[in-house]
């Protein structure tokens, strides 16, 4: 989109609008958005441009800016959340009605959600045929952003500090900051580092909880610091040069697109069971057990390690996300929405589509979902994917003679009201794994799954 704006040859005023939908995102995501904006503004300033910040409902804010600046119109990159689609359609209609330019561009996904279609012209509900159709179609090459012509006068901008984007974070920025990798240059370096050093082992090691075997790029993708098309083409080039895990990596990247494809075609995926036949299922709601799960105090070591990792770093390994989601929805028979909301509050790579798809996939209520009888056994998963216990040692302190700094950092980060103490014995398991599994199987089978 910036390339298209630059190509007009006209002066460009880059703008970010903090609208009510964005105000409402989770605490860690909102804090991370602030870092992304600061870095993007600095990058524009280094090129003589600026980032103008405004707050309020998008249409009203943009109409005032258009009146103040006399701009010929607007351009933006499309986003596919239901509320964003409604907002952007209203902006487009209002601008067009006044004869102004209102151009939305693709770029946030590998393909537009409506471009990958089944033979009958419908959308995909299963990943593998989606992947085949997407890769057969091909992915457009990314267009590098051109230098932007600056206007003669700049409209006023809010100050980023005055937005207090980190205010809702109970644990404070200092806890998450060392784990954030922020901005376009850092994202690109992350991609190159991954392709240089990790790609060959990616397929074999990506599920290992104790190894830094994946790219970490979800954080940068979430804030538009790197585009999926750039990643796709860099991986394809590595593949041509003989990198072993590159196709597998592109397949993972395509899961993100599949999530947006699903959200576009079935927007209810974030709020309701994707399979309505699950609506009668008596999920448990808020409970002491759900709170213990959020606090990383279930007594199931790998679950607690993962929940603590997310609280401190703003991210969690993909395998661990599946383990904790299965534990919550199956062993604790608790509604997937409780997990989805907590992830949305804690993740700095929060992505509404991947989060919703991930939760519904594990719970069994989603498209292409795991069958109900697939209940991850956290202990077996830990043996397999954390064979020497290094991941658990990094994040668990209780009962250990020399707890790792990361494990202790969790206790320093949590609110005092949780009353957690690393000197206590490890928490007792909330549920015996075999009993929990049997209870879940009985409840799920009775649902007629
Ligand atoms: P890599 O292994 O390096 O993969 C490269 C890219 O492929 C990722 O950056 C990501 O964009 C994409 N990708 C990989 N696996 C998946 C997947 N299973 N689903 C969708 N895209 C994938 N991902 C988010 O970005 N935000 C979320 O809020 C989110 N919530 C999740 C919730 C649950 C319950 C589950 C099971 C998964 C969730 N995921 C989410 C997907 C996945 O866990 C992360 O994308 C992955 O851990 C990111 O790490 P990485 O960048 O190192 O991945």
From TrEMBL:
UniProt site (Electron transfer via tryptophanyl radical): 283, 336, 359
SUPFAM superfamilies according to UniProt: Cryptochrome/photolyase FAD-binding domain, Cryptochrome/photolyase, N-terminal domain
Keywords, alphabetical: Chromophore, FAD, Flavoprotein
GO biological process: nucleobase-containing compound metabolic process; response to light stimulus; response to stress
Domain Photolyase/cryptochrome alpha/beta residues, every copy: 1-110
Cofactor annotation comment: Binds 1 FAD per subunit.
Molecular function, one GO term: DNA binding
Residues the record lists as binding FAD: 202, 214-218, 249, 349-351
Keyword hit for Flavoprotein: yes
Cofactor: FAD; (6R)-5,10-methylene-5,6,7,8-tetrahydrofolate
Short name of one Pfam family: DNA_photolyase
InterPro entries: Crypto/Photolyase_FAD-like_sf (IPR036134), Crypto/Photolyase_N_sf (IPR036155), Cryptochr/Photolyase_FAD-bd (IPR005101), Cryptochrome/DNA_photolyase_1 (IPR002081), DNA_photolyase_1_CS_C (IPR018394), DNA_photolyase_N (IPR006050), Rossmann-like_a/b/a_fold (IPR014729)
Transmembrane parts of this sequence: none
Entry's family note: Belongs to the DNA photolyase family.
Protein name, entry field: Deoxyribodipyrimidine photo-lyase
Organism name: Neotabrizicola shimadae
